[in-house]
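User: Let's play a game. I give you a shape written as tokens, and you guess the letters that built it. Ready? Here's round one.
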């Protein structure tokens, strides 16, 4: 003897006295909200059939199983309802006037929004071959008229379980991607998602920014750990917002230093301009935070432009990082700069697409360790 189909993993039919605990003296709006919350936890099924009697029968059977059954008498009405609400399953009649069930099935399976929505086809005795053709193009299964309640229950249960599992997997994948984009550039995440195993690139035209809080090491010795972390969090969170505003990639923080890059992982002609604008915005923001936090915060910023290598390193704690002489020079320009100014190289000045927008003061050159004497500029106060 065959095993009985397992029961639907859904709430029992809606009976307020049994399924909802509604205390006395509740307002109408509170009761409606409780009913809405209950319905949101219940699977919603759309019945698409041009026959009113079939729709009534199926919706009645669905309600007895604790499901929300809604109906549509045509493909156009079904599409309208799908635009308005989310459903867990569609029961779709194969033969309908105008746009047939098969045509609607193809349309839904070609849509990125609905292609993963499970669909059970409804067919008559003479339509089995057509129903099988529907399964071949994406339908989950089919139900034969007249409806067998036990079989209907089993197939709906299987489809809804599959839909919930798919939803959970998608939610987990979305959370994973969201976490990755907090760590890696979005363009890099897309490449990893497409199957690339190793991210390693060379960019010929980029700009690198370093900033450092002047005297913060000594200041931190006088601050409690809680105040120290709170201060850095406020400062770096503000810098992160500026980086996002200008479309700049934050690379990392190192102690009280902040590193960013433009022109990677997606090339852009104005890489020098946006980093200079970001550096100026960072200095302005730090002045505001200095007043708000009541701390003597000052900052140097250095920028250099040129080629770099970029890629992902690490396995468990991975990082998108950049390497090359351009990085080293940017760091040394910062170290040899002045508080409250952006210190940029001759190469960065040359790379500016709108140099007249930025009043610059020639330093007469600075001596950088390992590089010798190089030309550089400071932004005006």
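Assistant: Ready! My guess for every position:
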């Amino acid at each position: 003897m065959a095993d009985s189909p397992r029961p639907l993993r859904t709430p029992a039919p809606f009976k307020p006295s049994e399924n909802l605990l509604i205390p006395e003296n509740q307002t109408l709006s509170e009761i409606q909200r409780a009913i809405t919350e209950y319905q949101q936890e219940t699977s919603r099924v759309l019945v698409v059939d041009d026959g009113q009697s079939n729709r009534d029968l199926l919706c009645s059977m669905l309600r007895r199983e604790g499901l929300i059954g809604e109906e549509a008498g045509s493909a156009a009405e079904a599409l309208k309802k799908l635009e308005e609400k989310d459903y867990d399953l569609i029961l779709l009649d194969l033969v309908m006037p105008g746009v047939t069930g098969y045509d609607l099935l193809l349309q839904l399976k070609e849509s990125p929004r609905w292609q993963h929505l499970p669909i059970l086809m409804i067919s008559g005795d003479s339509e089995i071959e057509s129903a099988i053709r529907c399964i071949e193009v994406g339908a989950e299964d089919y139900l034969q008229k007249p409806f067998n309640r036990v079989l209907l229950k089993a197939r709906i249960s299987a489809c809804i379980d599959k839909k919930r599992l798919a939803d959970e997997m998608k939610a987990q994948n979305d959370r994973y991607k969201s976490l990755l984009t907090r760590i890696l550039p979005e363009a890099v995440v897309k490449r990893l998602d497409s199957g690339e195993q190793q991210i390693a690139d060379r960019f010929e035209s980029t700009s690198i920014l370093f900033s450092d809080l002047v005297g913060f090491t000594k200041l931190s010795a006088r601050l409690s750990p809680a105040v120290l972390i709170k201060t850095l969090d406020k400062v770096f969170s503000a810098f992160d917002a500026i980086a996002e505003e200008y479309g700049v990639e934050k690379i990392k923080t190192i102690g009280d230093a902040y590193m960013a890059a433009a022109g990677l992982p997606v090339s852009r002609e104005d890489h020098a301009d946006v980093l200079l604008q970001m550096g100026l915005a960072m200095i302005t923001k730090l002045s505001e935070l200095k007043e708000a936090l009541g701390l003597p915060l000052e900052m140097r910023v250095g920028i250099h432009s040129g080629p770099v290598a970029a890629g992902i390193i690490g396995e468990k704690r991975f990082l998108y990082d950049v390497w090359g002489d351009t990085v080293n020079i940017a760091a040394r320009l910062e170290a040899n700069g002045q508080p409250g100014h952006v210190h940029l190289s001759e190469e960065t000045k040359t790379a500016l697409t709108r140099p007249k927008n930025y009043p610059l003061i020639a330093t007469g050159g600075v001596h950088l360790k390992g590089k010798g004497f190089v030309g550089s500029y400071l932004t005006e106060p």
